[in-house]
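Troubleshooting log. The previous structure file for this entry was overwritten by mistake, so regenerating from the original sequence record. Sequence copied from the archived sheet and checked twice against the printout by T.R.
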Amino acid sequence: MARQMKDSSVEWIGEIPENWEMIKAKNIFTNHKDIVGDEEEKYERLSLTLNGVLKRAKDDSKGLQSESLSTYQILRENELVFKMIDLANINTSRVGYSTYMGLVSPVYIIFNNEKYTRYGYYFFYNMWQRAIFNQLGNNGVRSALNASDMLNLPFPKISEIEGNKIADFLDEKVEEIDSVIAKTKDTIEDYKKYKQAIITETVTKGLNNIELKLTGNIHIDKIPIHWNMKKLKYVFYIKKDIAGKEGYDVLSITQKGIKIKDITNNEGQLAANYANYQLVEVGDFAMNHMDLLTGWVDVSKYSGVTSPDYRVFNFNDKSAYNKEYYLYLIQMCYMNRIFYGLGQGVSNLGRWRLQADKFLNFTIPIPPLEEQKEIAAYLDVKCSEIDKLVVKKEELLADLESYKKSLIYEYVTGKKEV
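Regenerated output below.
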């Protein structure tokens, strides 16, 4: 017999079983904020992460935090913990179920009721995954929700037995899905490492497995015996042509390549005056050398302008070099963190730059032109094959995440019965 359903009167919940009721979370959970004070040494430090509530070293200084852990609050086992600040950020954790006792940030919100916290975790996790939190309040996005806001959220009134049955079922199913997700992510990383290894080996050793010679370069130690090495400044020159006026397409450089930014919809960091940006022509190399961990280099398919802080360059003699080969070579320097090793800056602020003199004096291989073309053609095929495999795995990941989200929603709202 089909389960009898009724309207919950909550838009994002939809229908619920006829014998369920919607009440306020405060009728189920209590909130406490027990500041540890001078007893901080008795407790471990905990943190709410995308992977749940995890232990964290007390001397870990990453991110925003209080000067002293004495201001932190005590989180106990089997309690729920929420991070309800900066709600516009959709890529951070929001809810966790603690299996530890320890200290957490004073800005976190803690709910207690051991009879319902396991079911409650999945209910609030569903809210997070469906982006409900950052839609709440004042007819728009609020930057934060406080404990009172959370306690006034709608919550299903169901029996402890049914709540635990749902939690037990979801524990098992989610663990299965998460295991497949983890293996899929590992496979994607393996493909990426394989691609990196192929590029590295081919752009520095060639295709023909011939005798190698030492280069004296610690970054590219051996090359085929008939290749040469030259400083990059003898192959490329740096361009710096300031636009002087607005009206050009604005180009951004990401690890997916160069693209045209949608500045009308405030995509990315905006500039006050794009007339101060530098020109990029089709076929120019452009690189973000401002952050050598996440920066990238590509050959532009577009004409436009890009940040004056980026580096735009091209060949001294276009007839002597193959741009596809040298794009693979320079990207290899990013992949293997060669440029990172040559950079300087303040790493904990995310700025690690490759100065112009280090860039221009970096020594690179010079294969014969025909070999450059052969290598580029070979890598085009191999990398395309690997990229297609990665895309398939990423599609599987998206399907798994969607299935997990749907599964949790259907069971915590009673649309499916355990």
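Residues 160-205 form the longest helix (46 residues). Archived copy saved in two places this time.
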